[in-house]
Amino acid sequence: MKVQSQRFVSRLTRDTLALVLAGGRGARLKDLTAWRAKPAVPFGGKFRIIDFPLANCINSGIRRIAVLTQYKAHSLIQHVQKGWGFLRGEFNEFVEIWPAQQRVDTSWYAGTADAVYQNLDIIREHDPEYILVLAGDHIYKMDYGDMIAYHVDTNADMTVACLEVDLDTAKAFGVMACDQTGQVYEFQEKPADPSPMPGKSDRALASMGVYVFNASFLYEQLVRDADVSKSNHDFGQDIIPHIVGRYRVMAFPYRDTQTDTQAYWRDVGTVDAYWAANLELIGVTPELNLYDQDWPIWTYQEQLPPAKFVFDDDDRRGMAVDSMVSGGCIISGALVRHSLLFSNVEVDAHALIEDSVILPDVHVGKNCRIKRAVVDKGCHVPEGMVIGENLEEDARRFHVSPGGVVLVTSDMLGAPRRRAR
Q1: Can you list the domains of the chain with their CATH numbers?
Q2: pTM, whole model, 2 decimals?
Q3: CA nearest to 407, candidates 275, 293, 288
Q4: Which residues belong to the annotated binding site?
């Protein structure tokens, strides 16, 4: 399938309402989501995961955006209010928070489709022509205008953004089969034995959880699904399988328009994937370019002093090598190597941090050694503690991932409960 460059993208995006589904817990991230929803988890040194789909909307020209929240949403709501309140309401531009509020009955959001259904009255008031449904917990850059134009050009009822993945990875996704025109004729949600792509026996076509609907068509399908008692009220499990074969569902290939190769996309849903995706950013030319001025990622910007590196003695030199260090950090006679430090991290003398992701407001005491770890926000690592060198011992105190990454939180350190948000 080849996607042509389309005209009138700005008009189409102005007629689009984006719904960002941000109510999920993200349980596979373990204690990182004990007190925050997955979209609120910090990422990339200064951002949160939710910033990426929101920035994609703004950069695509979509200025009517609703964020649907549910699980432990306080920090997520605070972040969106602080960082995304720059749109002008008088021009009908907004980023609104739509919490689960039992608008239809006495239940909370039962599934992704139900989350949208329970807000149908608000959606209809905005009277969009098209509705863009997004997951709020993936890291990627995408021009949704191209996808909406493709949706209109192909006369689709629904369009699903998709990417190629290996068969083992496909087991965690919705898997599609489509004809040469791109029309989807089969959809399986998280199949045990995914169907491979024609001509690519080791690859499958996976849904990214990014959908475009004609608004009136979506209303009909949500109302129909709400009346099905045995439904899970989920897009992947119920809505899409029902409409495939009955209506025109198109697959939109997510490709880099310049190289025609698979574009960058990460599901940072496990501790290993989260650690790896953060450390990828340190590379000389990472796939995800955070320095791209043509497609900036916005976020709530704290007013912080520059990072500082102090002492230059032979046995006590503050330095960071092959690393990313955010504002407010102080590296005091310590060594940081191939690591990513978020804002306001303090590292005391003779400490060593290697291959690690250190979230905001962490204090690392003197003579500590931390390797292959994720240290959660607000942790105070006591003087002399060693993390990541003996995984058997680490497992008694912390969470050790299947890939050998050690996750450390304040609760695990035995500190008074500081709920990392």
Answers
A1: 6-282 (3.90.550.10), 308-413 (2.160.10.10)
A2: 0.93
A3: 275
A4: 109, 174, 189-190, 207
